Amino acid sequence: MLKNIREEHNKIALDSDWLEIERFTLVSLLSRMISHVLNGGTLLVCTEDRLEWFEKFVIQNINRPITARPLVPIFGVSEILPKIQSQDPALVLDMLSLSYKDFAFWYIGRAQGDVAKLALSKDDSFLWLLDDSMQKALNLSTKEKIKIEYKLIQLYKIFEEALFGAMFGNIILE
């Protein structure tokens, strides 16, 4: 997986020192995410409001019909629950547990807000946190010279390549 990270870095040719620095955290997090999906789990993508475009990007690309690969159980929370703010988090979690077998959140954003609280309330969530620091999360800075949008797209491409690489036996998860 480290090889894929470096190859993706070279393809995009951006200043990706941040990616090299975070590679061990990233590999650990991606391995857990991919194992979760390969073992029959569902990922529910959710973001803070200003990054809703990224949730849509993931959902539109992960199961796009032009690729000859299996469909994966990754869904957008905004499609399921347009506005979480007015809902009791326990009721939302109960409903999601009934609807999705072994689901986990894939949250991208700051650690504040209703959606973040919901994602943080589930222990096995996969977190890409902005301008915050938490163990078992990929902590990203929006204050560096490379824009967060580029980082997110680069990370998604690495995730997608690693996920399907693991599915087809090209990548071994440790």
From TrEMBL:
Among Pfam families, the record links this protein to: HobA (PF12163)
In terms of InterPro entries, this protein maps to: HobA, HobA_sf
- Which Gene3D superfamilies does the entry mention? DNA replication regulator HobA (3.40.50.11670)
Name of this protein: DnaA initiator-associating factor for replication initiation HobA
Q: Which organism is it from?
A: Helicobacter mustelae (strain ATCC 43772 / CCUG 25715 / CIP 103759 / LMG 18044 / NCTC 12198 / R85-136P)
